[in-house]
Amino acid sequence: MSREKGFIETGKNAEERSDIVPETPIALQTVDIGELKGLAGSPLGVSSWREVTQDEVNGFARSTGDDQWIHVDPERAKRGPFGTTVAHGFMTLAMFTGMLYELLEVTGAALILNYGTNRVRFPAPVPTGSKVRGHIDYGMVDDVPGGVQVEFRVTVEIDGNPKPACAAEILFRYYREVPGAAAGGSGA
């Protein structure tokens, strides 16, 4: 059953629906850097629910300078297109790292870098006070000098909404040793 069809037929929110909700939390998976290539194309798991608070949205607005009223002015936002304040799309994307680290620990990596994204979409806004969680799969896994690049495919679900908040392909690099600037990227 598709997520959207299940929501329409049952009228239940995500926590009430057994077709998309694991009954028990997913345990942290520990994987050695050398095992990552064998996981390409397989599911990683589903993170726990996380509430998105107005304080977090305000903090993100301060950090990025994006203080548009739909994010930080609850009174004005009540009369706006969403009826409440909403999280920034890029804030939703930034939550990915926490979701990933809840599900995956990679051993044998001296350095882990968020290398970028291939594709990002924000199909639905995240109202403040709502809960989100990530559904994460392994995409392509490729060797890079000194390590491995993993593409993670994430869909950020909003509790009670059949449309996802975010769908993205996010690249992480796992290095066996800390590379110098010649390895590409920032060299950090």
Give descriptors for this structure:
alpha+beta; six-stranded antiparallel sheet; two-stranded parallel sheet; 6 helices; 8 strands
Number of domains: 1
CATH class, please?
Alpha Beta
Beta percentage is: 25-35%
Helix content: 10-25%
- Tell how many strands the DSSP assignment holds: 8
Biggest sheet overview: 6 strands, antiparallel
Tell me the radius of gyration: 18 Å
- In CATH, the topology is named Thiol Ester Dehydrase, Chain A
Architecture per CATH nomenclature, i.e. the level-2 architecture: Roll
Mean pLDDT: 87
Oligomer description: single chain
What would you give as the CATH superfamily? Hotdog Thioesterase
Q: Could you list the spans in which at least 5 consecutive residues all have pLDDT below 50? A: 1-23
Envelope shape = elongated
Name the helix and strand elements from N-terminus to C-terminus, one letter apiece. Answer: HEEEHHHHHEEEEE
Structure class: alpha+beta
Tally of contiguous helical segments: 6
**Intertermini distance:** 44 Å
How would you sum up this structure, described in words?
- With 188 residues, the protein is of the alpha+beta class.
- It has a single domain (3-53, 86-179), classed as Hotdog Thioesterase (Thiol Ester Dehydrase, Chain A).
- Helices cover 22% and strands 32% of the residues.
- It has helices at 3-10, 54-64, 69-72, 74-78, 89-94, 96-103, and strands at 29-32, 43-46, 50-51, 104-107, 111-121, 131-144, 147-158, 166-175.
- Strands 2, 3, 5, 6, 7 and 8 form a six-stranded antiparallel β-sheet that branches. The protein has a two-stranded parallel ribbon with strand order 1-4.
- A hairpin with a 2-residue loop joins strand 6 (131-144) and strand 7 (147-158).
- It starts with a helix and ends in a 13-residue tail after the last strand.
